[in-house]
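User: Predict the complex.
Assistant: Input components as received:
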Amino acid sequence: MAEADTANTPRPTRWVRDPLLWVLAAFGALTYGLPHAEGVFGALFPELERPVYLQEPFAELVWRHLALVLVSSALATAVGLGAGIAVTRRSGRVFEPMMQTLAATGQTLPPIAVLALAVPVVGFGDRPALIALALYGLLPVLQAALAGLAAVPQAALESARAMGMTPAQVLRQVEIPLALPVWLAGVRTSVIINIGTAAIASTVGAKTLGSPLIVGLSGFNTAYVIQGALLVGLLAVAVDMGFERLARRVAWSN
Amino acid sequence: MIEFQNIGKSYDGVMAVDNLNLHIAQGELVVFIGPSGSGKSTALKMINRMIDHDRGHILLEGREIDSFDVRELRRRMGYAIQSVGLFPHWTVARNIATVPQLLGWPRERIHQRVCELLTLFGMAPAQFLQRLPHQLSGGQQQRVGVARALAADPAVLLMDEPFGALDPVTRATLQLELKRVHQSSGKTIVLVTHDIDEALLLADRIVLLNHGQVVQVATPLALLSNPADDFVLDFVGRADLGIKLLSLKPVAPLVCRAPAPPGSPTLANTASLREAVATLAVHGASVLSIVNLQQEVVGSLHAADVFSPATPSHG
Amino acid sequence: MRWQAHPVLAVCTTLGLWAAWALPVARLAPNRLLSGEPVFLSALLPGWAGWMVLPLIVLVFSPTQAPAPIPTVSAPGGLMDRWHPVTTLLLMAALLAGLFWLVGRYAQQVTFTESRLARTSLGAGFWSLLALAWLASLDAVQHLTRSAVLRHALMGGVALPFVTLLMLGVGHDLSILKEYANRDDVFWTAVRRHLQIVAVATLPSVLLALPLAWACSRFTRLRQAVFPLLNIIQTIPSIALFGLFMAPLAWLALRFPALSQAGISGVGLAPAVLALVLYSLLPITRSALAGLDQVPEATQTAARAMGMSAGQIFWRVELPLALPVLLPGLRTAVVQTIGLAAVTALVGAGGLGSLMFDGLFSAANDLVLLGVLPIVLLAMLVDALFKAAISFTRPATVLDGAPPVAQLADAGRYTA
């Protein structure tokens, strides 16, 4: 129903009504505008000496946060999809139930646990964050990889084989396009969780959008907390909306 | 065309197919039929190596199928299954074009072939080319499935219970369409079904299997007239054996030139004796007026002639 | 009979052998502040111990009729089929217990020979071997039974010798257990607090979600409005939501002193529980709604025809029938809450998270572990209990199998 509306409204109006654009605009405004908002926050929290987080520019924190999430998610996606494909091939099928259980059981662990456990192993800083995010982000992707491939209709696979497609052709032309919507959902879950975990990663020494939050919480600076929370919240919502758009384009059935 | 020599296949010690020997001539429509577990699907799938045989040889045009590259072998055969297996993310056109594209045909030729096939199955290309499978009815999907199997103009068409999932009306329509396509294209077709009426309608020869072994290989008429044993008799339907036999016989030889009395019920000259008997019974008549396609009277059919094997009583 | 390499076991054994050789099974540090020197398994084992690998090799390459089939309802599998997984489980249990005993004994020796401040902590090798043994056991139980309850019970059984040794005091000289001994009351307070947070957050969430789901099943408009909103909440990182609630709650507590007397303020339980309730809403509402949706129309009509009121229909007919779909969603919500409750320590709510973060901020690895391990175990325990409950509502279901695509999201987590 909403689709019909957007099809009929003229282009400029459509841009104006696009929620994703508003969220991105708000996010951009905050990132670059907050350092100049001392007056506002000073008025709201008169008891605070430093009403605005100035240790690093917000833009830098955004960049570092995004970098952490992007790299870890790329790794997680590559390994997750690769493993998913590998264990659904003839030679790898023995490992499939194990992978299935691993992906499901692993997700009962809280991501914060994986983050905390990485510290004794690799120390503090960006590294435990990256490892934890990659490892934890792997699980929803793996689960989605397996589910997506399992959802490909058997009849289609049988026909493809019978028509003389090589296994590689079957994978490329039939399995992957049909599994893609589910895969995308898995990647979406993984990325959104990673954005949240990356915020908490400030506790292990990584500099991300969570830093104003953590510093604010330990220093009882509510203004810092709000600034950090707004930014990371808007980021997460924007990324989720972006994935929603992507999902609609990838869906081959309506 | 296709030859089975001492073919055997076992699963966990059970013989799914046991000592199958069969020669399928070019242009023949052979039906494999039998109860569940008789090995009919297994036998079919051994032709395009979807299942590999344990013993014996299968020859395609005199050459062992094992000596072909399996992909090349499969691209030379069409394969249609009950659940159709259309690719849900591709349009009808793209689905049908699958094998031609694998073979590297030029785009124009593919497009031409797709339209040709859609028309052959009574589906207007303009309407159906860009549709997606989930937008088609069951019958339409199966038509597209068979069209896809025929796309690269294979010499052999393999069909595994293709009409099993359809409602009776659609099934009957598609059976007739297949018969028509077979007659006009002259392709070799191997069809698996569990429906004896379908087999009797379509087959040039029927291969009746039970527990992996061939019980009888015969034309429909021979199968009904001379069943090899009780199993065959029961399978073809002991009770209405006679009626089924009648459905295989045309009315033409028994039609005499003298016109029927006015008010007699009419029957097409292409009908079978079964329809003649039914019409006679329903109207309580003893004579039928036989008409051709243009509805012109060409003769009459007397009930007495239908039920006696002697020469027509009237000239 | 043919010789068969069991792939999962082979992989676990190969990795295990590498881990046992290359990774330290313990670390010895002169005091609490320095990180320790690695101690390898080879140092702890007597010379002939190398032969102990033999049973494992035998298991990996063992003769079988065919690959051990996963038992089905109709083919439960005989005793002969099961010898392999059973032996695997016994071996894993012995391995775990033995390893722990070795390290514990070593730690004990250290307290006699080194200074009082010396610490022996469990090393990467120990944890890797633990994980691999767990994996191998997981594979073995899948070949033994289909029942989720039995599978979890067997896994618990594998851990039993290990736990028994723990109870008997073996390993009490290990640093992590010393840490526990030092803070034992703090630890249990934290555990109680953690459970309290989870309970206080889950109950209101269920009480809110069920009526909401019922309303959504009646009014499609509501459904279309509610779920996008819940989705947005779910997307926001937990720490952000906790943070965003702090200021308003603090302001409210200032304006209405009665609230702050009741314990509601900008820090502590209030912002934590509020956010946790909101986070649990989506999984519970969604699964409750899905459960209500699949109650057959005919059943509801029959109930109405029998003269039941709307309320009676809901509680006596719809809800019980919706249970098999509702419970997995509830499971997701509770397990998620257990994890998120760890983050609430940052807003002052206490719980096991506070131990964890204390450890992180003071670079005390053992404290971190003392906080994290109970959270992980708690999550796994609750997950197992729910799976058992679910299997009672749906006896023939295999819960560790491929989740239906539509329920994919309910099987996993939503937010961090």
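The mean pLDDT of chain B is 90.
Let me know if you want any component modeled separately.
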